[in-house]
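We include this case.
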Amino acid sequence: MQIHFHIEDREKRERLKRILSFAAFLIVLFLIMIAAAMGLNQQRRVRARDYSAQKEQIDAEEQELTDRKAVIQKAEAMAVGYDYDGAIALLQSVKNYQTDSQIQKAIATFTAEKAKLEAKDPNKVPHIFFHSLIVDTSRAFDTEKWGTEEVAGINAWMTTVDEFDKIMQQLYDNGYVLVKMRDLVKETHDADGTVHFVKNDSLLLPADKKPIVLSIDDWSYYHTYTGRGYGSRAVLDENGDVKVEYTDADGKTTVGDYDVVPRLDSFVEEHPDFSYKGARGLIAMTGYNGVFGYRTDAAYKTGKNLDQDQKEWLDEHPDFDWDKEVAAATKVADAVKAEGWEFASHTWGHLSVTQKTLDELKTDNEKWQKTVANITGKTDTIIFAHGNDIGDWHDYNAETNKVYAYYKSQGFNFYANVDASSPSWVQIRDAYVRQGRIDCDGLQMWRAISGEAKINVFEDLFDVKSVFSKDRPTPVSATGKA
């Protein structure tokens, strides 16, 4: 019996030993599997990190190529607009541009093209201007509806869409290039802010190109424009581009290039070499009926000092919200400036500066600053209404000309009148710049065609006879209001 017990004990110990060994094996195997799994996960993490790093590098390289392409395209566009220095500087901002064969070739091309340019004389630069364009001549020239005197005014002071298109095309074909009025000068400032001007001897263009300044008066769509074949309001389309609303004779409203700003923008888009460094033109704004067709003057908000047209308009728009009008107009102004346009004062009330006292002009300017500059931004340019000026052809003198002294104290440095007696008239002085403008309207074109004008100031610009609309009543007289 004792021997039997010893055998059983030994067998139990052997079984336990085998169990423990197998358990140990399983534990070791489990640990190996865990270690293997951990190693595999580590490898996966390493590979993931490597892949992520590679992807980031690839994305960065692709973005760098995209940015490079965009810079090259922008530089090419700048060069088309004769800004070769800006184009070259932009290309040199690209990483490793020194070893980039495409960029080096572009820089060499732009440098060679710039060397061919020649300086243009700022004193011989013409300045043309327009009012809002007539879209529908049958309505604009309807004497039965509007009366002879009013149609005479429209006929005298306005330009048709068709005439404008022909003028732009002929200007382009004749080698003209839009420049800003401030491109005519170089501007410096003293430590105290005093401004000084000298002639810009670096207004560089190709030999066959000629600079010209363009401006627009009264882009406000006054109440008196309603129903007369003009646009009615500036708006932004789905792309954020500035367009104009127009309601036809049947009452259908569409949005398109129904006035100077969008029409010229579209022309420049098709002919980018028509614009020097992105220049468009000056827009001379009044404020008494608001701006761009928005009723933004304070009178619409307060309901005080309203004229009959304003009262009727407010009655027809019971949901009028002055703050929304100002906000919408400001968006338009910002978009217009982004396109290269600049704003100028045309006085708040479209005043004749030769027929108003200094106090009246001060009051008017204060209104302009409060109800127009709040939308368009400040400006240092004033374009006088009615073609007037605050002096004759002699230099402005702040000591003897109190009106000039006032406007100068208010920050106005650029001045413009109307002068169709010569192809160009520019006065560059240390403290200011003044330019005469040629009106491209029915009256001035008729005078050139009929021989009433002493000289045809359009001769080098465009062919008046081919431009002049056959829809115009003739002869064209100066009867009526602008």
